[in-house]
TrEMBL record:
<dbReference type="InterPro" id="IPR036380">
    <property type="entry name" value="Isochorismatase-like_sf"/>
</dbReference>
<feature type="domain" description="Isochorismatase-like">
    <location>
        <begin position="35"/>
        <end position="216"/>
    </location>
</feature>
<protein>
    <recommendedName>
        <fullName>Isochorismatase-like domain-containing protein</fullName>
    </recommendedName>
</protein>
<dbReference type="GO" id="GO:0016787">
    <property type="term" value="F:hydrolase activity"/>
</dbReference>
<dbReference type="InterPro" id="IPR000868">
    <property type="entry name" value="Isochorismatase-like_dom"/>
</dbReference>
<dbReference type="InterPro" id="IPR050272">
    <property type="entry name" value="Isochorismatase-like_hydrls"/>
</dbReference>
<dbReference type="Pfam" id="PF00857">
    <property type="entry name" value="Isochorismatase"/>
</dbReference>
<comment type="similarity">
    <text>Belongs to the isochorismatase family.</text>
</comment>
<keyword id="KW-0378">Hydrolase</keyword>
């Protein structure tokens, strides 16, 4: 568990554990109906010159994301992709441009940086796979994602993608609030810097979900047959 990692200050761990955060010995159950949610993996984060590009930070996660997608496809388990699209200046998410005026232009309709990554055929939706278009951080907010998961009788969401401190965290929080057990593949998530990445994984583990490695997800999937 993240709260047991030796890299965190002892006073931080003591403060959280004394209040009961992250102390469950069992954690959330890994159910029998899993779906993989691949959050906003697009060229905006992977292309040099893009305002959202961060060398190595997002590329490192990409190979783990590919492993998860390949495994879920092999097992015929649902793979759901999300992407941000602002169709016009009145799209709700455009309000975020007051906060991030440069970066969010990548997601204007027609901007190729908002497309699924050209360098990875695995991280591009296949026919029949669900694509959720969103305008806000959570993949659930203002979308049909909860209805899609309920229709598939999903009980466990495996979450990966970009960025850890933004859309991954927001989606994880809402997954818990909608009643789906969130398992975040920490090494299959990326952020602009190690600090927000690790801080948000720590907080997710303490309060909202289970943060595990891609290897552990694959082991759990294998155990389900």
């Amino acid at each position: 568990m993240v709260l047991e990692r030796g890299s965190y200050p002892q006073d931080l761990l003591s403060s959280y554990s004394s209040s009961g955060f992250g102390t469950s010995s069992e954690g959330l159950p890994f159910g029998d109906k899993q779906a993989l949610i691949v959050i906003d993996v697009c060229d905006a984060y992977l292309t040099p010159g893009s305002p959202l590009y961060a060398p190595d930070r997002f590329h490192h996660a990409l190979s783990h994301i590919e492993r998860l997608i390949s495994d879920f496809r092999t097992r015929a388990r649902p793979v759901i992709f999300t992407r941000v699209v602002y169709q016009n200046p009145d799209s709700g998410g455009n309000w975020y441009k007051q906060k991030i005026p440069k970066g969010l232009k990548c997601f204007d309709a027609g901007n190729v940086l908002g497309d699924f990554p050209a360098q990875s055929t695995i991280c591009r939706p296949r026919p029949g796979e669900t694509v959720i278009e969103k305008q806000f951080s959570s993949s659930f907010f203002g979308t049909s994602l909860a209805s899609v998961l309920l229709g598939l009788k999903v009980d466990t969401t495996v979450i990966c993608g970009y960025s850890t401190s933004g859309c991954v965290r927001a989606t994880t929080t809402d997954a818990m609030q909608y009643g789906f057990h969130p398992f975040v593949a920490g090494d299959a998530c990326g952020d602009r810097h190690a600090y927000p990445h690790e801080a948000n994984l720590f907080d997710i583990q303490a309060k909202f979900g289970e943060v595990v490695s891609t290897d552990e997800i694959l082991e759990r999937m294998a155990g389900k047959g």
